[in-house]
Amino acid sequence: ICVNENEKGLLNDFEKVLKDLVKEKDNYKHDFIDNNAASQIRAFFLGSSETIPIVDGRLDLGTWQSIFFIELDGPRANRTIDLTFIGE
Length: 88
Description:
Blueprint: E1 2-5, H1 8-21, H2 37-46, E2 54-55, E3 58-59, E4 65-68
């Protein structure tokens, strides 16, 4: 999950940078187990959570921001997202 600007050029650049940073195949040791090392390594760069404030009952995102659910090891039929609300 990631929060950023929802602009097609930026999204294409983001995908290119991830692929440039981590080659799909590079004799990764993890590939001998699950054959998804590149996806797992890319996930290190992205993290696994976001904190998004809610103000007056609405997500308090920037003007151009959107929430992205990034699939690095799929497609998968199902994914689970856990939401935690922390109040005052």
